[in-house]
């Protein structure tokens, strides 16, 4: 079984709809992240959470919100989707106990299309 | 925000050739990571580097953490068709609270 899972894997929606992307992990990591990937732009950080009660904005948080329901679950919401939010979305996890050796592990991604 | 300059953007090579790609920045990094992304999948960690000057291998892959802490390279020897994909460098800036900055990726195509 995959350590980091994302649902759905693909989603097509219309402008103005509310969308939730979910991420679950079995790695026991305390830190979780949401990234967006666009062609030619690499991965950009949307939000990150270092613990259940900790939520932080990344470099492109406008138009998004997140919820850390449990240590293993981190969801990303688009309250009112717009076409320029069409992208690949990745969840990632890391372990603070790794200290300076901390690395991030990615889920398989969700392809979101907003019409 | 801080950018990593990753080059080349794309490479087309013949099977069996060696490949080299690199990332540079004007800032100092504490950690350098190299990921590979296959089509339709998430990035998978290939090599992690934690000390300046560190040279680490993973099979046919070799990566180094630059002495200045501002650059890193990844070499792939004797390329094979399954090496096709996008390779990303990522760095953890000094004082960034463990956030990663990603390069824009190198698209590698290997012709059999």
Provide a descriptive summary of the structure in words.
The complex is a heterodimer of chains A (115) and B (112). Chain A has strands spanning 4-7, 10-13, 19-25, 31-38, 42-51, 54-57, 65-70, 73-78, 87-94, 105-106, 110-114. In chain A, strand 5 and strand 6 form a beta hairpin. The N and C termini of chain A lie far apart (33 Å). With 115 residues, chain A is mainly beta. With 112 residues, chain B is mainly beta. Chain B is built from no helices and 11 strands. The mean pLDDT of chain B is 91. Chain B has strands at residues 5-7, 10-14, 19-24, 29-37, 44-49, 55-58, 61-65, 71-76, 85-93, 100-102, 106-111. At the A-B interface, strand 5, strand 9 and strand 10 of A face strand 4, strand 5 and strand 9 of B.
Count of alpha/pi helices of chain A: 0
Query: What is the total tally of β strands of chain B?
Result: 11
Structural class of chain A: mainly beta
User: Biggest β-sheet of chain B, characterized?
Assistant: 6 strands, mixed
Give the largest interface. Answer: A-B, 25 and 24 residues
Q: What sort of overall outline of chain B do the alpha carbons produce when their principal axes are compared?
A: globular
Helix content of chain B: under 10%
Oligomeric form: heterodimer
Distance between the termini of chain B: 39 Å
Radius of gyration of chain A: 13 Å
Q: What percent strand of chain A?
A: over 45%
Radius of gyration of chain B: 13 Å
Euclidean distance between termini CA atoms of chain A: 33 Å
Poorly predicted residue ranges of chain B: none
Q: Which key terms come to mind for this protein?
A:
heterodimer; A: 115 residues; mainly beta; seven-stranded mixed sheet; four-stranded antiparallel sheet; 11 strands; globular; B: 112 residues; six-stranded mixed sheet; five-stranded antiparallel sheet; 0% helix
């Amino acid at each position: 079984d995959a350590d980091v899972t994302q649902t759905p894997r693909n989603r097509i929606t219309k402008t103005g709809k509310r969308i939730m992307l979910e991420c679950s992990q079995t790695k026991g990591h305390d830190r979780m992240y949401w990234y967006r990937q666009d062609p030619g732009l690499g991965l950009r950080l949307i939000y990150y959470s270092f613990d259940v009660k900790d939520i932080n904005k990344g470099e492109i948080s406008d138009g998004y919100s997140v919820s850390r329901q449990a240590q293993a679950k981190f969801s990303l919401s688009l309250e009112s989707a717009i076409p320029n939010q069409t992208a690949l979305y990745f969840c990632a996890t890391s372990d603070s106990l790794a200290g300076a050796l901390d690395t991030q592990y990615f889920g398989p991604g969700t392809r979101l299309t907003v019409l | 925000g801080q950018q990593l300059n990753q080059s080349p953007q794309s490479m087309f090579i013949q099977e069996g050739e060696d490949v080299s790609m690199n990332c540079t920045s004007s800032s100092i990094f504490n950690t350098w990571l190299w990921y590979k992304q296959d089509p339709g999948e998430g990035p998978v960690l290939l090599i992690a580097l934690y000390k300046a000057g560190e040279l680490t291998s993973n099979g046919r892959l070799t990566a180094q953490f630059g002495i200045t802490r501002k650059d890193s390279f990844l070499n792939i020897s004797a390329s094979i068709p399954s090496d096709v994909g996008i390779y990303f460098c990522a760095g953890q800036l000094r004082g960034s609270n463990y956030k990663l900055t990603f390069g824009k990726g190198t698209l590698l195509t290997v012709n059999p």
